[in-house]
Automatic annotation (TrEMBL):
<keyword id="KW-0614">Plasmid</keyword>
<dbReference type="GO" id="GO:0030313">
    <property type="term" value="C:cell envelope"/>
</dbReference>
<keyword id="KW-1015">Disulfide bond</keyword>
<dbReference type="InterPro" id="IPR013766">
    <property type="entry name" value="Thioredoxin_domain"/>
</dbReference>
<feature type="region of interest" description="Disordered">
    <location>
        <begin position="1"/>
        <end position="23"/>
    </location>
</feature>
<dbReference type="GO" id="GO:0017004">
    <property type="term" value="P:cytochrome complex assembly"/>
</dbReference>
<keyword id="KW-0676">Redox-active center</keyword>
<protein>
    <submittedName>
        <fullName>Thiol-disulfide oxidoreductase ResA</fullName>
    </submittedName>
</protein>
<dbReference type="InterPro" id="IPR000866">
    <property type="entry name" value="AhpC/TSA"/>
</dbReference>
<feature type="domain" description="Thioredoxin">
    <location>
        <begin position="70"/>
        <end position="208"/>
    </location>
</feature>
<keyword id="KW-0472">Membrane</keyword>
<keyword id="KW-0735">Signal-anchor</keyword>
<dbReference type="Pfam" id="PF00578">
    <property type="entry name" value="AhpC-TSA"/>
</dbReference>
<dbReference type="GO" id="GO:0016209">
    <property type="term" value="F:antioxidant activity"/>
</dbReference>
<dbReference type="InterPro" id="IPR050553">
    <property type="entry name" value="Thioredoxin_ResA/DsbE_sf"/>
</dbReference>
<dbReference type="InterPro" id="IPR036249">
    <property type="entry name" value="Thioredoxin-like_sf"/>
</dbReference>
<keyword id="KW-1133">Transmembrane helix</keyword>
Amino acid sequence: MSSHTCRSSRADSQDSDRTEGIDEKKGRNVAWRQRRRTAFFMRTAILLVLAGAIGFTLYNNATKENREVLQVGDPAPDFKLTDLNGEEHQLSDYKGQGVFVNFWGTWCKPCEKEFPLMERQYQVYKDQGVQILAVNIAQSDFEVKQYAEQRDLTFPIVIDKNKSVMEAYNIIPLPTTLLVNAEGNIEKIITGEMSEEDIQSYMEQIKPI
């Protein structure tokens, strides 16, 4: 009787070991699949960023000779674009206020550095008659919305889906920012990354008197 009990215990122990081995193998398989899925999404995101950067560069090189160059003092070309909440923004509707028109892309590293600085200054100046319109160049709503939410951006972000605004403003490098004064004229054109001191100074420059 005791011998039978001992054999049963060994069998139970072996069954338990086999079950634990199977569970451990399943766990390794699940972890491996999760790592592969994460790697796939990361590779996809990197490829999208690279494709956007390459496409933007090729498009600019192909069309830059046909564009008129805007200068300080020119009327800012009017445009109407839709933000991430479905609300339309027309530049001429902001007449009487200063507008900080910033052209950008999610793949643009200087743009990424500027945005938290712009957000901080936006909170200071939005009630003083200075607005920001951040114009994304032809990326998907999903990409842009995810980017904005991850960085807690509250100023209006609009998407130039067919690049018509980019062409009207002769935008080549990103970021490019245009200061539009209360009369609707271009006060300054800035190419490249801005410091927070720059942004504050520019917002003061276009703040209505």
